[in-house]
Amino acid sequence: MNSLVLAVIGIALMIAGYLLYSKFLAKKVYRLDPAFTTPAHELNDGVDYVPTNKFVLWGHHFTSVAGAAPIVGPAVAVIWGWLPAVLWVTIGTIFFAGMHDMGALWASQRHKGQSMGMLSGKYIGPRGRALFLVVIFLLLLMVVAAFAVVIKNLLINTPSAVIPVWGAILVALVIGQMIYRWKINLLLTTIIGVVALYTLIIVGNANPIVLPDPILGMTPATFWIVALFVYAGIASLLPVWVLLQPRDYINGVQLFIGLGILFGSVLLSAPAIVAPAINHNVPEGTPPLVPLLFVTIACGAISGFHGMVSSGTSAKQLDKETDARFVGYFGAVGEGLLALGAIIAATAGYRTLADWEAVYTAFNEGGVAAFVEGGGNILNAGLGIPLGLSATILATMAVLFAATTMDTGMRLLRFVVQEAGELAKVRIGGAVGTIIALVIAVGLVFSLGADGEGGMLIWPLFGTTNQLLASLTLSVIAVILLRKRINPLPVMIPLAVVMVMSIYALIIQLGTFYAEQNWLLLVLDVIILIASLWVALEAFIAMGKARGGVDEDADDPVARVEG
């Protein structure tokens, strides 16, 4: 198979999904109303609730949900062959992810920007809400802790990415001022930001930063992790328009330029895919394709973390309800395109099948390293970009997206701590909530030593937990649709597929953790399984009760008309 053919087919299908299926969802399922007053206007506080241009919000939302996961997951999953990965990414993006992200965004902004955890209390019940928050908390903890380790490793292994990664923060601060304070034209602001970002990449490539050992009494690994958490803590407390939003926006534009460079290189060089379509010679110890494919590729097909971002931050910034189609669904399309690019880089970026097999010697091999190496080879062959600069561009892309997910994850983790305080009838302020979240996350990261590898301790549960959370989010959306007397079938079919595959995978992992005598992951697996099954049971009971019912929310005009 030629990678150019694969790229054209994949891109065409995802764009068609946005033009056709998202339009159907907007009109017939979610019934987006341009006259609806969104929480960003109703509750505008200049910190979390901020009416935002849909292009800027798309950038913030897209880069928050993207992270390194749509690179890592697909670049690992090709060990089963490129065909299953491409099919799941394409079908998942069109019929699963776009609908899920858009639905979570719609449901939250129809309820004053409340998170899915809060909505689960209203539509499923108080027990469901408490258990939902347990799953959400564990997922966010995995994301924040693991991404800190991923970023640290990339900064150490690719020192040319240090200057652009940290310089991007200064660029974002200026972009925020240009948009909101100085009211400079968005197109001009975007051009200035992109030029500054790519200038930093060129400067960083010429001036790699290797930290001395020790530095301030710490190893480079410890220093980078501490610096990342200090940044994430500060970013989670700043008004969203000051740093997070402009940083994510300019990173979103940068990603599409990066994808354009990657797919442009595929167009010019048309490299052959050397990996098999279906790998019948997988390394020993590789788990079965079904159900593990569906949890290995989470971000890039459907991801529960997206529902947390949609309802945790993006819903509070939606200017018009109709913007949910572009921000939510097209945000998922952007991530699907990134996953498709990762698959092509990891399967067509090597000269021979033997070279590819030398990388994929065991399950969980490949990942970001395969994306950077394979993608760098494609950029070099297609556009003649030197291998060193190609690696810097792709590594910077991966780090910037991991960082934007980490800082958004920290903000969401703070929200969950505050919501847990509400359940316990204890009021927790933003600063205190952030400190609590930081202490727990930092404690996990350094639990196995100063190198921070403790951050990967519970990561093996990410895929299953993430997909279970997606199914639970879909169950809340299904209950809302049923109470509005709207056909929930576009939600129910993906809900059934994701829930069955996730629970199946979680049960398989139970056996693996028991065989390895990994008691921590075994206990967490059992907790997540019980909590998820309990919430799912209560959700299905709520769906039965919701048939023929009416959602009487005062902030929902559709409900008021029906009521």
TrEMBL record:
<feature type="transmembrane region" description="Helical">
    <location>
        <begin position="383"/>
        <end position="405"/>
    </location>
</feature>
<feature type="transmembrane region" description="Helical">
    <location>
        <begin position="426"/>
        <end position="450"/>
    </location>
</feature>
<feature type="transmembrane region" description="Helical">
    <location>
        <begin position="223"/>
        <end position="244"/>
    </location>
</feature>
<feature type="transmembrane region" description="Helical">
    <location>
        <begin position="163"/>
        <end position="180"/>
    </location>
</feature>
<keyword id="KW-0812">Transmembrane</keyword>
<feature type="domain" description="CstA N-terminal">
    <location>
        <begin position="2"/>
        <end position="347"/>
    </location>
</feature>
<dbReference type="Pfam" id="PF02554">
    <property type="entry name" value="CstA"/>
</dbReference>
<feature type="transmembrane region" description="Helical">
    <location>
        <begin position="6"/>
        <end position="26"/>
    </location>
</feature>
<keyword id="KW-1133">Transmembrane helix</keyword>
<feature type="transmembrane region" description="Helical">
    <location>
        <begin position="62"/>
        <end position="80"/>
    </location>
</feature>
<feature type="transmembrane region" description="Helical">
    <location>
        <begin position="86"/>
        <end position="107"/>
    </location>
</feature>
<keyword id="KW-1003">Cell membrane</keyword>
<feature type="transmembrane region" description="Helical">
    <location>
        <begin position="187"/>
        <end position="211"/>
    </location>
</feature>
<dbReference type="InterPro" id="IPR003706">
    <property type="entry name" value="CstA_N"/>
</dbReference>
<feature type="transmembrane region" description="Helical">
    <location>
        <begin position="128"/>
        <end position="151"/>
    </location>
</feature>
<feature type="transmembrane region" description="Helical">
    <location>
        <begin position="329"/>
        <end position="350"/>
    </location>
</feature>
<comment type="similarity">
    <text>Belongs to the peptide transporter carbon starvation (CstA) (TC 2.A.114) family.</text>
</comment>
<feature type="transmembrane region" description="Helical">
    <location>
        <begin position="456"/>
        <end position="482"/>
    </location>
</feature>
<protein>
    <submittedName>
        <fullName>Carbon starvation protein</fullName>
    </submittedName>
</protein>
<feature type="transmembrane region" description="Helical">
    <location>
        <begin position="489"/>
        <end position="507"/>
    </location>
</feature>
<feature type="transmembrane region" description="Helical">
    <location>
        <begin position="519"/>
        <end position="537"/>
    </location>
</feature>
<keyword id="KW-0472">Membrane</keyword>
<feature type="transmembrane region" description="Helical">
    <location>
        <begin position="290"/>
        <end position="309"/>
    </location>
</feature>
<feature type="transmembrane region" description="Helical">
    <location>
        <begin position="256"/>
        <end position="278"/>
    </location>
</feature>
<feature type="domain" description="CstA N-terminal">
    <location>
        <begin position="362"/>
        <end position="505"/>
    </location>
</feature>
<dbReference type="InterPro" id="IPR051605">
    <property type="entry name" value="CstA"/>
</dbReference>
